[in-house]
Automatic annotation (TrEMBL):
The keyword Repeat does not apply. Keywords: Membrane, Transmembrane, Transmembrane helix. Residues 12-121 form the YEATS-Like-Associating Three TM domain. The chain crosses the membrane at residues 12-33, 45-63, 83-103. This is YEATS-Like-Associating Three TM domain-containing protein. InterPro entries: YLATT (IPR046890).
Amino acid sequence: MLTLLNFLSGPTINLIYIMLICGIVGGVGNTLRGTTCSGVVLSKNICLGIIASIAVPLFLSLVSSDIISSLYIVKKGTDGHSVNYLIFSGFCIIASYASLDFLNNISGRVMQNLKEDNKQVKSEIEQLSKTVETIAVSTESNPQINASELEKFKTPHYTEIMNSIKNKENKFRPIDLIKTEVNQDNTEIDKKIEILKNNNLVKEIELRKGEKAVALTEDAEKIME
């Protein structure tokens, strides 16, 4: 309750009042510029005007404007950022006056940003895949385990995981990719990979935060023979 009261105080409540008033004024103005001025048209334009006015903070965020954030920073000797309130009001009036065009433009911009972000994520994933493909298993020696200890890993569940990890180039493979290929519960796969790692049958590297890749050691290759 206190959080809500804090939110609806100071600059926030002022911005809400401005958006509502400007939405109504802009909606009336939008109606007056048309050839039809009925109650239905007026109500429709006022509703669209308020919606467009409420979308102004999103628009300002998309264009990296700091008008709104500056309203929350009160400097000594100022009158409460009256100029920024006037600028914000102007944006809201324009947005509500041309509500349909504004909403169409801002929705198109949001979708474009989402597409660009999606494209960037795909590019990062592709780059990550290329990086994984170029990382080979180190040839440094590991403590050897005897044949009897290797036998306990010759079970269908362990061999299925190791078959997924194994590749001709002896490269690291992402664990998330292995989970899509192995027909076992993801938690069990993580446990078994951890056991394989503790027994020097698997080597693990961290690609980036939260993403890991594994590769088989020479001892694991013996099990696979």
